[in-house]
Amino acid sequence: MTAALGLYTSAPAFEALAAALLCGDPAVERTSLYLRAESSDFLRFNHALLRQATSVEQAYVTLAVERGLRRAESTLSLSGEPARDAQRLRDERTLLVHQLDLIPDDPWLRFPQQATYSTRDQPGQLARADQVIARVVAAAGARLKQDFVGFYAAGPVVHAFADSLGSRHWHRVETFHFDWCLYRGTDKAVKATYAGIQWHDQAFVDRLEQAAQRVPLLDRAPRSLPPGAYRAALSASAVAELLDTLGWSGFSLKSRRTGVSSLMRLHSGQAEFNPMVQLDEADAGATTPSFTAEGFLRPSQVSLVHAGARPATGGTLNSTRAAAEYGVSANGAGEQESPQALRMRAGSIPAADMLRVLDTGLYVSNLWYLNYSDRQACRVTGMTRYACFWVEHGQLVAPVQVMRFDDDLMRMFGAGLVGLSDTPEFMPRGDTYGARGLGCVTAPAAIVDGFQLTL
Amino acid sequence: MLQTLELAARRAAACLPSTVQHWAVRGLRERAEQLSVRLDIVQAPRRSLDDGAMVCVIDGGQAYAATGDLTQRGLEAAFLRAHSLARAAAGRTVTDYERVARANGTGSYHSHVERPASSASLPEKLGWLQEVCAGAGGDARIVDRQAALWTVQTEQCHITSDGARTHQHWEFTMPSLEVTAHDRGVTQVRSSAGQYNGFCQQGGLEVLERARFRQDEGPRVARQALELVGAPACPSGQFELLLMPDQMMLQIHESIGHPLELDRILGDERNFAGTSFVTLDMFGHYAYGSELLNVSFDPDRAHEFAGFAFDDDATPARRTMLIERGVLRRPLGGSLSQARARAQGYDFDVVATTRAGGWNRAPIDRMSNLNVEPGSCSLQEMIGSMELGVVMHTNCSWSIDDSRNKFQFGCEYARMVRGGQLAEVVRNPNYRGVSATFWRSLSMVGDASTLEVMGTPFCGKGEPSQVIRVGHASPACKFSGVDVFGGA
Fold first, then answer.
1. Cα(B409)–Cα(B396) distance, rounded to whole angstroms?
2. Do A151 and A234 reside in the same domain of the chain?
3. Backbone phi, then psi, for B26, in 5-degree steps?
4. Where does residue A345 rank: exposed (0-12), middle (13-18), buried (19+ CB within 10 A)?
5. Which of A60, A168, A420, B27 is least surrounded, with the fewest CB atoms within 10 Å of its CB?
6. pLDDT, tens digit (0-9, with 9 covering 90-100), for B105-149
7. Alpha helices in B136-280 (DSSP H)
8. Same domain (yes/no): A164, A288
9. Quick one: pLDDT at residue A286?
10. Which of B81, B88, B466 sits opposite A133 (nearest CB)?
11. Are B172 and B151 in contact, with CB atoms under 8 Å apart?
């Protein structure tokens, strides 16, 4: 079922487009193309039946022209017909070159001065959409009788870059991401995920059955916890949600220099995390591209928190523009200066012992809808979700009603941190706003004291 | 676009087998420009040109396919992909899509535009932003300031085998200004109408005048940012709370709009966006709020961000009351959700608000223009009635549970009210509550003089995720006995 737009998920088609656009032009110093293309199957399920099936073929290219300290850019959808796409891009390029005459210099504009190259092509073995539909309906519905609600996304995703300096970057991965809930009652559910590049029917069914085995735990009488401070075991997924929120502004160079980072106390040395906290932006082995939208190479690792403190290298993600503005070196961050592949190092608690070490307290499987209640104080609020349990003597006792928390992340992962599990989980984020995202988080589970529940 | 697309669609549909019960093509063409000036430096201008189509096929099952190729060849390929998926879905779907009644609206819609964005040159628009950005400067405690203008022109055509033929044109204008002030260890951000484009309307450059963007926004926002860095933290306790329209829009959005989405109530969103504390049996009698609460779906309101004549199922849109005198009347659900609810024994009117976030996403139940109707109180009367209270402006933080019940919202700027008089500015104001009871504490509703037409370009929902434009018009509203607190 390959359609015309599928063309741009192959390298030769992109190279042909680049060849048509990136000819020498004395009116500009650099022309660049940044392609994001995908050919995706999206399947939504509710009550173990198909709710919505969509096949999406899309390709967007950001065309930029630069001259001196001026840049103009335009993002165009592509049709998949090479001659037509090349002509639209040439027309747009003419307009952008004209715009360069109309705008003032940007003293912080920087672009690469020499060509760079990278290639990653990760083929996958994906299921056909009809196979997935049939498998879910037969296994989750007919056989296991589960109230299954979930979302499957699969297919190739391409990010590619080319410029008139000769740079060429190609990043193509074929992935699937399937996450689902088995519901028991209004807001009680077991959440599970199956993601990767090689689909195996049996592996999916195994995960489905494992999740189904946990559902009866939700039948126990739920417990309502009064607001207060609790010892809590946070799953790796819950830790990842907290780290995602830190990533909104916490590590951004611009946010640090303008004082709006949630980690200003870490930055100034007023506070530190627990020494066992080690955070890196670590592209090595991740699914993220090794280049930026401007054509800069990304380092394989940037240290963000070292032994609980700000590292000597600064501990920030520096975009080229912010780096120029604040007089430091860029380190491969995009414009938003948010982590794409944040990694928290493992601790020493064996994963199987997390509930035993917790002893008595709250097990948090999932967190939801996090936001800052006081960004400067690194205070975050959010909700528990799905299968969270009250634990006594290391045993799951009863599901708990959803609760709101409001706590200081520097306290939770500082004085409040009891320990981290020894087995970090790699979690592709599976975002699909506008396009399938390639971001990921790697995190261990954690035990914290004094987790503040408020409502 | 309409005639070209219609011709291509009808020819392309000939590739489908005779067993197909229904086909549709929704074509979209969108042009946008984003301009920004930060600390008096013009940032690289950004344009976008986005053309594509979503086709739908029903043959046993229903499926969609999106393509950026609007030619007959491109639509044929999309039809065949959708048909293949529809056949794979046959007999395995949540409802019998072949039996769902389909709308066949015909007609057009145009945003009311006095001065299109294209009527001003790039240097003119950048010059305005430089003025606004400079207007927020002049004090060493202002450490960051950024003025931006985002303009969008959208054209959508929708053609179906059932005779629907709609053609809609929108123009959207979104000015924004954000200022950061720092003094003696305190940093505060103040914006013109929210850090996520809260002032967004249909229309051209005249929207800038309605926003007072070039008149006095720079000095006002900077002044209030400086007030905040010198202000004490908002006190904690139970207070009377007066929410201004740029916070009411968020309150409406999260704790009325999302809970009333019928697909959410039917469980479609439980894996991601969440479920709802509202159940099918509540409509017609449930006391959602006090008798002062009246909420409308209003696609016709002038300038409001999500006005249209037809939703993305080609159902004609008309103003409908969702909550009247506090009583819950009907959900936000289009023709498909209506049929699914009816199959469970619940018969609701269709509210034409099934929409897609772009040509590459299939339509689902969304908010559109969702408004609180004005009451009879002046702002002065509301403030005068408060012995001890807080007035909050402009959302900056929001969090709510997946049933849309337990919420916590934060605002940029607040003032205490003492003895019926506005008193000191306080920073980091937050409040929390429970949707199911919060609206029953609504004790005064502002009159039309307090109403503002706001919205957001960034309402997220769905799998795959979709961002959509939503409008919220609201007067200022007063609530009693609210749990308020400040920063750390």
1. 8
2. no
3. -120, 110
4. middle
5. A168
6. 999 999 999 999 999 999 999 999 999 999 999 999 999 999 999
7. 206-210, 217-229, 245-252, 262-265
8. no
9. 67
10. B88
11. yes
Q: Are residues A241 and A331 in the same domain?
A: yes
SS3 A243: helix
Q: What angle do CA A388, A391, A395 make, to 5 degrees?
A: 115
Is residue A106 within 8 A of residue A99, CB to CB? The reply is: no
Domain co-membership, B90 together with B13: yes
Whether residue B488 is predicted with pLDDT greater than 70 in this model: the reply is no
Q: Which residues of A16-35 are buried (b: 16+ CB within 10 A; e: fewer)?
A: ebbebbbeeeeebebbbbbb
> Are B190 and B338 in the same domain?
no
Strands B370-372 and A117-122, by their bridges, are unpaired
With tokens 């090595």, the residue in question is A284
Pairing of strands B46-59, A70-77: parallel
- Provide the token pair at B132: 């606004």
On the question of pLDDT at A6 being above 70, the answer is no
Q: Are A208 and A144 within 8 A, CB to CB? A: yes
Residue A3 has pLDDT above 70, yes or no: no
Indicate if A211 and A252 belong to the same structural domain.
no
Domain boundary among A158, A187, A218: A218
Do A302 and A418 share a domain, yes or no?
yes
Q: Nearest chain B Cα to A45, which residue? A: B268
Chain A residues touching B49 at Cβ < 8 A: 74-77, 88, 92
Bridge partners of A74?
A: A63, B47
Nearest CA in chain B to A262: B187
CATH number for the domain including B161? 3.30.2290.10
Residue B198 contacts residue B456 (beta carbons within 8 Å)? yes
Same domain, A441 and A319: yes
Q: What is the ipTM, given to two decimal places?
A: 0.96
Interface test with B, best of A31, A51, A101, A455 (most B CBs within 10 A): A51
How far, in Å, CA of B180 to CA of B143, rounded?
A: 6
Write the DSSP symbol of residue B369: B
Domain stop point among A199, A218, A237: A218
Cβ-based neighbour number of residue A68 at 10 Å: 11
Say what the pLDDT of residue A1 is. 39
Q: Considering the entire predicted model, what is its pTM?
A: 0.96
Which chain B residues are closer than 8 Å to A137 by Cβ?
92
Provide DSSP, A169-222: EEEEEEEEEEEEEEE-SSS-EEEEEEEESB--HHHHHHHHHHHHHHGGGGGSPP
Within a 13 Å sphere around the CA of B460, how many CA atoms are in the beta-carbon half? 12
Confidence of residue B3 (pLDDT cuts 50, 70, 90): confident
Q: What letter does residue B374 receive in the DSSP assignment?
A: P
Mean pLDDT of all residues belonging to chain A: 95
Same domain, B208 and B258: no
Residue A269's contacts (CB-CB under 8 Å, 6 or more residues apart) are A309, A310
Please state whether the peptide bond connecting residue B464 to the residue before it is cis, i.e. omega within 30 degrees of 0. Answer: yes
User: Domain range for residue A323?
Assistant: 220-453
Q: Which residue of B has its CA nearest to A379?
A: B488
* φ, ψ for residue B335, nearest 5 deg: -65, -35
Tell me which residue has tokens 């709510």: B400
Cβ-defined contact of A53 to B68 (cutoff 8 Å) = no
pLDDT band of residue A2 (cuts 50, 70, 90) is very low
CA dist A34 and A13 (Å) reads 14
Residue A5 pLDDT more than 60?
no
Number of structural domains in chain B: 2
Nearest CA-CA distance, residue A348 and chain B, Å = 32
Report yes or no: A270 at the B interface, CB cutoff 8 Å: no
- What mean pLDDT comes out for the span A372-398? 95
Collapsing DSSP states into helix, strand and coil, what is residue B202? strand
Tokens of A322: 């912010």
